[in-house]
């Protein structure tokens, strides 16, 4: 008669045997010796699609700010107008800084396509310096206006002006933070696919801000100095 009593040692050995049988499958090999591959189900270019959706939502934000300026742009409330406040040569210089930064970012994208990490980082650094110069001049303009008593609370025109131009400047500032972070990532990991995707997203964001600024320069500053 067979002994049907429970043997802990035999039970443990059987469990180890089952674990060993599963090991090849967990390591990427089936029990019959054939190999298999785990496919990650991630939509191709899903990140870029999501970023395009974000940019479209940002377009709505700026469209609302432009609409508010169109309504309030002539409400001076007895205060100064754009023709009295705007320093057009200074604004033109600031515009040149931002447009040049768009060109230098294009050079960094070309360098990334050529798999040249040093050139990519160099042109990104130049882009960051031009963007920082743009923000510096804009803050100087804001400080001068507030010192002259033309702050955002002075009139509807100035409220809409500070809201529109300030929101754009805030976007450029966030873009600079993103750019510096990307420089660190490139320095550490190089032009891996993830960093090249981040370069593309930041490129879309940066060129979008250039397009918005052209609208600001034309609609706010150039039309603002007209009588």
TrEMBL record:
Keywords: Cell membrane, Electron transport, Membrane, Oxidoreductase, Transmembrane, Transmembrane helix, Transport. The chain crosses the membrane at residues 51-72, 92-112, 119-137, 157-184, 205-226. GO terms for cellular component: plasma membrane. One of its GO terms (molecular function) is cytochrome-c oxidase activity. Pfam families: COX3. Coiled coil: none annotated. GO terms for biological process: aerobic electron transport chain. Residues 45-225 form the Heme-copper oxidase subunit III family profile domain. Heterooctamer of two A chains, two B chains, two C chains and two D chains. NCBIfam families: CyoC. Belongs to the cytochrome c oxidase subunit 3 family. Cytochrome bo(3) ubiquinol terminal oxidase is the component of the aerobic respiratory chain of E.coli that predominates when cells are grown at high aeration. Has proton pump activity across the membrane in addition to electron transfer, pumping 2 protons/electron. This is Cytochrome bo(3) ubiquinol oxidase subunit 3. It comes from Noviherbaspirillum galbum. The lineage of its organism: Bacteria, Pseudomonadati, Pseudomonadota, Betaproteobacteria, Burkholderiales. The gene is cyoC.
């Amino acid at each position: 008669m067979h002994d049907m009593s429970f043997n802990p040692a035999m039970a443990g050995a059987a469990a180890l045997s089952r674990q060993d049988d599963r090991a090849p499958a967990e390591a990427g090999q089936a029990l019959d010796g054939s190999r298999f591959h785990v496919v990650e189900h991630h939509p191709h270019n899903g990140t870029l699609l999501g970023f395009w959706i974000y940019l479209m939502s940002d377009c709505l934000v700026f469209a609302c700010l432009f609409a508010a300026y169109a309504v309030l742009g002539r409400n001076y409330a007895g205060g100064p107008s754009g023709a009295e406040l705007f320093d057009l040569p200074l604004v033109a210089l600031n515009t040149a800084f931002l447009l040049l930064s768009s060109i230098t970012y294009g050079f960094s994208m070309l360098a990334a396509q050529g798999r040249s990490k040093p050139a990519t980082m160099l042109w990104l650094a130049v882009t960051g310096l031009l963007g920082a110069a743009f923000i510096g001049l804009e803050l100087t303009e804001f400080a001068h206006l507030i010192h002259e008593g033309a702050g955002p609370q002075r009139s509807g025109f100035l409220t809409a002006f500070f809201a529109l131009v300030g929101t754009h400047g805030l976007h450029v500032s966030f873009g600079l933070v993103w750019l510096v972070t990307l420089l660190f990532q490139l320095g550490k990991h190089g032009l891996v696919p993830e960093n090249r995707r981040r370069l593309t997203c930041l490129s879309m964001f940066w060129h979008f801000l250039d397009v918005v600024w052209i609208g600001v320069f034309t609609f706010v500053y150039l039309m603002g100095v007209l009588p």
